[in-house]
Amino acid sequence: QVQLVESGGGLVQPGGSLTLSCAASGRIFSIGPMGWYRQAPGKQRELVATITSGGETNYADSVKDRFTISRDNAKVTVALQMNGLKPEDTAVYYCNVWSYAEGTYYWGQGTQVTVSS
Q1: How far is Cα 34 from Cα 50, in angstroms, rounded to an integer?
Q2: Residues 6+ apart with CB under 8 A from 80
């Protein structure tokens, strides 16, 4: 199995920045795409950004040009740099990875991001 531990959430004012980090452990020798999803109260979980092991990225339209996803394949970590945060970015953010060895996705426990003045 794969375990994911997220960090970096918190309270920030509109226009501010936060960086989320996620570290994978366990059977991490065949991790594929990694990404971040978020779920706001009363809404479905939605994709924020993904990144392949080769560095190809994909972003939700709502975060393009504000958020940047990156990964370290050696350390098996993924980060999400969030700039220009807006109140509508408030949500629980979840790390997600695909394990080729296990043939399944794994999720982190989630970290709260609140954007408010």
Answers
A1: 6
A2: 19, 20, 36, 48, 49, 67, 68, 69, 93
